[in-house]
Design goal:
alpha+beta, 10 helices
């Protein structure tokens, strides 16, 4: 798990650690720069012993203040995860007193970094998936070709686009998004995303669609009338954007009819009429 520690994250760590331990805390990068501190005047200064702790991968204790080295009395602990030194965290104070907090301090730091790393990975995965869905529904040929090159099995299926939209602002939107994300995981639907401010789009492989369709009744019971859904036509990989276009028309029809769901296949005549000029229609 790779973690990039920003100054903001480092400051969160030292502030939280001080709230627990009560002593001034520094977070020092691997080169000795104090990235964050509960003593503001030390932020951005060089910490010679912190640099040594990172280089040697060992705890370094300072028994006297040494202003010439940017060092105060205290104990400095290298933070090591997956064999990588991520930085050094130090407690300022009498070493005999503050060293008893060393284990607790490093554990606080590790918890922060692990949680942050997991959140970053989850966000990256979500962002990657969202870009893929956007490429398909807006017909981004370059990205679609890249997807096909990386995962050629994607082009072997037909797909149905479905668009959910909630009507009452925030309301139960979070509950609905969690339910849909869970369902996608259970059904092995890998292409789905939330589109700000009120839509959730799924690209459903045709072989999975019957299983997904069976869940509509359950979702209607849980979320209607706050949520409506439009379901597009079955299309090959390179024409998913057409299914999405029909899904949006079906969604509008569901809103007009005040029903939970409308499938594009049930309103071919309406789509034909919408494609004509007003005079001809």
């Amino acid at each position: 798990m790779k973690v990039r520690i920003t100054d903001e994250l480092a400051q969160q760590i030292v502030d939280s650690a001080k709230a627990v331990i009560g002593w001034n805390i520094n977070f020092i990068d691997r080169h000795g720069r104090i990235m964050a501190s509960t003593d503001e005047k030390r932020i951005g200064t060089y910490h010679k012993v912190g640099a040594a702790a990172a280089r040697l991968r060992q705890v370094q204790t300072v028994h006297e203040n040494r202003p010439e080295d940017g060092v105060s009395k205290g104990v400095n602990y290298p933070i090591i995860m997956d064999r990588q030194v991520l930085g050094v965290i130090g407690i300022t104070g009498e070493p005999e007193v503050v060293s008893q907090y060393g284990f607790l301090l490093t554990k606080i730091c590790e918890v922060f970094l692990k949680e942050y790393g997991l959140n970053e990975e989850a966000f990256s995965e979500q962002e990657y998936r969202s870009r893929q869905v956007m490429a398909l529904i807006y017909h981004d040929r370059d990205t679609m070709q890249q997807m096909a090159d990386e995962r050629p099995e994607l082009t072997e299926h037909s797909y149905v686009a479905a668009v959910f939209r909630w009507q009452d602002g925030a309301g139960r939107a979070d509950d609905f998004r969690k339910a849909m994300t869970t369902a996608c995981g259970e059904l092995r639907i890998s292409l789905f995303t939330y589109i700000y401010p009120d839509s959730f789009v799924l690209i459903i492989p045709q072989d999975i669609y019957p299983l997904w369709d069976k869940r509509l009744t359950r979702w209607k019971g849980l979320f209607y009338p706050s949520v409506r859904v439009g379901i597009g036509t079955e299309e090959p990989f390179h024409r998913v954007y057409e299914s999405y276009r029909f899904a949006k028309l079906a969604l509008q029809a569901a809103a007009d009819r005040e029903v939970f769901s409308v499938h594009a296949d049930d309103m071919k005549l309406a789509f034909l009429l919408q494609s004509l000029s007003a005079t001809l229609r």
